[in-house]
Amino acid sequence: MMCLSATRTRAEETPVQVIRSPRQYPVIVIGSGAAGGMAAWNLTQQGIPVVLLDAGTKFDRSKYWTHVTPWEHRARTARGEKEYNFFLDTHEQPYLTQEGRPFSLARVWGHGGKTNVWGRVSLRYSEMDFQGPARDGWEIPWPIGYRDIAPYYDKVEELIGVYGGSDDSDALPGSAFLLPAPAPRCAERLLMRTGATLQMPIVAGRRANMTKSVRGFPPCHYCGKCGRGCDTASFFCSADHLLPFALATKKLEIRSNVVAARILVDDKGLARGVQYFDRQSGREQRVQGKVIVLAASCVDSTRILLNSTSTAHPNGLGNSSDVIGRYLCEQIRLNVKGYMPALFGSGYKQDYGADGEHIYMPRFNHRVPHTRDYLRGFGMQFWGSASTGGGVPFFGRTIPGFGAALKAECTGRYPGWVELHPFGEVLPYAHNRITVDPAKTDRYGVPLLKIDYRIGENERKMTEHMADAVEELAKAAGVELVDYRRGELDAMGSAIHEHATCRMGADPKRSALNRFNQMHDVKNLFVVDGSSFTTASEKNPTLTILALSWRATDYLAEEMKKSNL
Ligand SMILES: Cc1cc2nc3c(=O)[nH]c(=O)nc-3n(C[C@H](O)[C@H](O)[C@H](O)COP(=O)(O)OP(=O)(O)OC[C@H]3O[C@@H](n4cnc5c(N)ncnc54)[C@H](O)[C@@H]3O)c2cc1C
Ligand code: SF4
To answer: Residue with the nearest Cα to atom 8 of ligand 2?
Structure first.
């Protein structure tokens, strides 16, 4: 029996036609980004039929402005044309924040989700990351360790194509499955050399750009425009590298432009279906399934769970522990720019590379002489350092003058362009929270999500250390900082790495999911996106999301084969 007790749907308020799907699908997956794409791919490879609900549709590659020159860009803009926009408009789907505490939320609704535009930095969590909370006692421990996930990191890296080097450390575990890394550029080499002298080792970057052909996809041609989508699908995007393969099994049905609102339960409180709204017509529909895999991204999955109230789950679906929505965490970030005068005029060439940095500084603050009085740590990215795509536009805006002299100054500086971006872990705090506001609803009558987020003393101490590290590295490498304001953090949320609002853990009283991303309270519901993480770590999460989703759906497939689900 299907029920939506204790929840007033728009259908109950207005005479909207409700079409009940007669079919019960073995699995419903919600979302097709890294988490949902992987779930759909893995289950269909194993012969399990899946219906995938996605709030958007496939992005139209023919409309990308990937190889549009700056002057053509200007001409098109002057003609009133707009660059292809992947991001969800807040007019269509607003979100709320606490007064005085802004949070910058990026959402991509469409096949592949944010993997259409992501930065592709792909770093394995280390044992140190998984053991962090157990070691320092801040919040609950992860129920898994590196050993549990390592085989999945291997498989994911092989499947999606991640480049990297031969380094292997306690902060960033090595891998035998990496593609060749692009060579560091001149300024990056100088930073690497300097980092070594300061005992802050800088290694080859690890990113999901295919520096060799992978599964028939052409290698990257180093145009450096990944942020606009890739013409040749040479970086990992779920819509290119997972969904077509899942469709080829004939086991996948995709329903596009459908916005999941609530998960429906039966009288035992088990998940039995999804209520969704057609994004264009607003029409309400429902689909039934035996198992549901929720992968709408951390914030949207949390919203769906909190809106799925019923008699059995009055506090939101699977939320008897009251942890769902709490412990929202990601990373704080500094964004420092500068250039190396020593490299002025050393030669201008096309050096976009694989878009952004070719190097990475793993966490080092756990080693003497860098230890300090705060928990967890930070790593450092270098974004557009020495890349033609990085410095030139910035210099163009900041250097006075015009014409040939301005051009000479910009191009002279470009080889020494440096960007320093430490990413530091934010602790999971119960008060950092996503809730839903029944008084404020979207165009379908579904309560909006509200984010309340602030950092604490630990993050302030870490920010000081991040600023010290930036200044020390810059000074030793001969980098002149431009427009520098010490310790000025990027807007909260701008790391775009939300985690932990439906966390996994061994204790059902303090966590929502078990070690296989399965809900403690609702056995036939799995949550596989970043909301399932116990902590954030200083690293970008997508590689780990992919690995966890693969692992969770392997477990799910086994349970289905044993008729446990
Ligand atoms: C500019 C940018 C740079 C980034 N750089 C990096 C990086 O370098 N490294 C890294 O690891 N990560 C990076 N990220 C983050 C990375 O993109 C995400 O971690 C990853 O995409 C999360 O995967 P996901 O499946 O959880 O969510 P998403 O990729 O956001 O996918 C969510 C899916 O759910 C669907 N959906 C949402 N709501 C609903 C609903 N109500 N009903 C139905 N479907 C719904 C969406 O359409 C989408 O298909 C970056 C992100 C951005 C935007
Ligand atoms: S740099 Fe490589 S991966 Fe990025 S858009 Fe260009 S070809 Fe694609």
So the answer is: 230
